[in-house]
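Our example copied in:
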Amino acid sequence: MKPTIDHADVAVVGGGPVGALAALGLARAGRKVVLVETRARRAPIHDARALALSWASRQRLEEEGAWPATLPATPIDVVHVSQQGACGRTVLSRQDLGLPHLGLVADYAALTAALNARLEEAGVTVLWESRVTAVKSLARYAALEVESAGQRAALTCRLAVLAEGGALAETLPGIRRSVHDYRQCALLAPVTFEAPQTGTAYERFSLDGPFALLPYGDGYMLVWTRSPEEAAALSGDADMLKVAIERAMGGRLGAVTHTGPCAVFPLVLKEVNRVVSGRVVLIGNAAQTMHPVAAQGLNLGLRDASGLIEAVAGSPDPGSPEVLSGYAARRRLDSRAVVGFTHSLIQLFDGHDALSQWLRGTGMNLLDVVPPLRRAFASHLVFGVGQR
């Protein structure tokens, strides 16, 4: 579709869950919003990721009408954290916070389809099969160059929101992106065991690398951090994968009865030094891309979108320095704390000597037996740091 809109209050670049939520919330608040997305409107979404959404994220999506009752999702009621080969565990429960569930697991494709339908229902203008090739911030507006069907057009707005993980942010004055390559991959595969799935998510720090088993339908979705070579070998050999999972779980769920198709993703931490440049603000993957060990990346991005919606509410100029500096200040603690916590987990559980294992085990046991600590920790995971 050739772009036919030349000006908007807000232009959102990137139609993933974070960008779509931002567009919906800003449009509901009465802003004229244009969303620019590279995908075709009806194109099938081929993405193997299962998303672990906190209960707070699920509620925020429902508020925008983007969580239909028909959306397939598997509840997480308990999170069981342990380490292989040593004592120590922490068990978090929905009862700790008095919630119906701690979270839910949904397919990326299903959630994105629900958001697409809601965007259409809400009448949000979406430029499908389009990409922003340049962005510039001026005193009174931001200017975007949009390419679609081989043609280029200018789109101006009072606020530009980057919600994609591309290189646009690095062209902005004052924005620098730091990158840490973990030299690891995430191996994803649906798995079933002899024991039935009961709503418990397992976060296991195994000798071969941290992994999560997320409740997923009648079984689980495995997310295992391995070296690129190990991930490639395991993804190509179902029997080898079954043996490795059973060894890492220590028989807790019995034998693995089935593994489905595997997917492998490289793991890199990316973080910008600031999230605002003039009239451009960065949210979600544009601001930070994280290791999946604590399943916090998407939840953090959705809180970015919600925070931006709240920050611009009632302001005559959504891209004013006062609005955006206020947004950045309010999001700083949550973002830095979650990124730092996730990154430190990888380093903390990297050592497997006796002293390291004992210290980790002692910390997990302490968290488990002191209810105020356990509730505070669970609240940070579900609602964000300093957000509730």
User: Anything to note?
Assistant: The chain has a mean pLDDT of 93.
